[in-house]
Amino acid sequence: MMATAVAHPNIALVKYWGKRDTALNLPAVPSLSLTLDGFSTTTTVTWDAPRDTVVFNGVRADEETTRKVAAVLDLVAPNRPPVGVVSDNDFPSAAGLASSSSGFSALVVAAAAAAGRSLSIEQLSVLARRGSGSACRSLWGGFVEWTLGERADGTDSHGVPVAPVDHWDVVMVVAIVSGKKKAVGSTSGMEASRATSPYYDAWVRTAPGRVDVGRSAVLARDLQALGEVMEASTFEMHALMHTTRPPIIYWQPATVACLHAVRRLRDEGIGAYATMDAGPNVKVLCLRSDAAAVARALREHVEDVRIAKPGGGVSVRIEP
Ligand code: PMV
């Protein structure tokens, strides 16, 4: 059977950086995210293909990606047949735009449908987490929390919806500083931070409180409270990266220019707040009514600026 799923990436408002179990991708910290419209991954899975193949953006995937995909497919159905995967992103991959979050959530949903397995959305979220931690949040649209869970096997560490896609008229204005593949992947970066940053323990200790503040701010539609906790979490995560040995520096000059532009917007009275992930791109949270002004300010520093509204969860169709 064949199935096609479409998923959107999510951007963390309160960040995930650090694992308590690397094999199971169990987080050391809880996190909170917003799923974005406007960017998407479309993945078609053919169950019972002549052999395992993964084609990613029109090109045969490298060995590491193929291995990761195969490992997740093995979890969807042990003793599976060979499977064909064709996946396309309509935005830059592996550049801190959360392409792994849409990629693995689309993969598990398409694979489960093609395999004829009916799994709950929480079970799908757990499987997506095994491919890439942040992917477990993309099963839902809108605002989503990824809870730590308590079980050793990780079956209770998955996404939990906080507020639906139409809850609040906020947008993320995305300044694409670079679409190039990041130099340090998130898994090796997190491990290096855990092993070498003197600030790692403080990061782990304070993260749950940040998620509590973020969740309340989302539910109260309080942009200032959410923006402030998002910036605090972002800069703490990057401080952790910068104090890793050797330091992990994702920022480019234009990243810093965008950060200053966001500060200036706030000085002018516009509620705009910045976040960054494992890459140089800057995403700015603001009300939809301020999106054009924010995009204009960012375009002074970066050519490619896009406005993304909150997006929905994963959709899937069985191919005839
Ligand atoms: O789940 P991964 O391996 O793609 O790591 C995501 C890490 C950050 O994007 C930096 C933060 C987050 O919570 O998404």
Sum this structure up briefly.
The protein is an alpha+beta fold and 320 residues long. It contains eight helices and 16 strands.
Top keywords for this entry?
Ribosomal Protein S5, domain 2; globular; 8 helices; 4-stranded antiparallel beta sheet; Alpha-Beta Plaits; 320 residues; 6-stranded mixed beta sheet; single chain; 16 strands; alpha+beta; binds (3R)-3-hydroxy-3-methyl-5-(phosphonooxy)pentanoic acid; 24% strand
Molecular structure report:
This protein is an alpha+beta fold. The chain has 2 domains: 2-165, 2-Layer Sandwich (Ribosomal Protein S5, domain 2), CATH 3.30.230; 170-308, GHMP kinase, C-terminal domain (Alpha-Beta Plaits), CATH 3.30.70. The chain has 8 helices and 16 strands. The chain has helices at residues 63-76, 99-114, 121-131, 186-196, 200-219, 223-242, 253-267, 291-299, and strands spanning 2-7, 10-14, 19-21, 26-27, 31-35, 41-47, 53-56, 59-60, 83-89, 143-146, 159-163, 170-176, 273-275, 282-287, 304-308, 315-319. Helix 1 (63-76) packs across helix 2. The radius of gyration is 19 Å and the shape is globular. The model has no long low-confidence stretch (mean pLDDT 96). The structure holds (3R)-3-hydroxy-3-methyl-5-(phosphonooxy)pentanoic acid. Residues 12, 15-17, 31, 98, 100, 132-134, 186-187, 277-278 line the site of (3R)-3-hydroxy-3-methyl-5-(phosphonooxy)pentanoic acid.
